Please model this.
Amino acid sequence: MSLMILRHAPALTGGRITGRREVDADCSNRAALARMAARIGRPAQVWCSPARRCLQTAHALGLAPDRMLPALLEQDQGLWEGRPLTDLPDLGPLPPEALACHRPEGGESFLDMAARVHPLLVEAPPGTLIVAHAGTVRAALALVVGARALSFAVAPLSLTILHRIDSAGAEWAVEAVNLTLPETI
Model:
């Protein structure tokens, strides 16, 4: 079973951490959207985070979500939300397992977020496209590589494709990560 996860178009964050905050997506690159829409084709189902930037991206791709699922929302950054990125502490020295457990005050850890995303990935029918966030993509990758998924940079408007190997959803394989489509395609 194939599962596609698309990160939304670039978020207009104003240099601030977004998390659960509502911000618009920059859907002005019509050529990139057209290339991605052609690559995606007609998915069996479209599941979408209810965040405005995800809905705007889905609509700009000509897709109408079949389901909007709050469990697909980005990681809750608690008191960090809305703060300038330059004001955040440097967590880079933490090993992946410790970083995955780190919880900003009033927010959730990566492991908390992955725990709400994973059941949806397992229940997704074959050919489902999920339009969501970088954190959602990393949660999906964690099914294969664990906490090391936090080391992946996930570009806006990029596609990640996973394959469920077993019917229980315990075994997954990665086909593509961060697939963007250059103008030459």
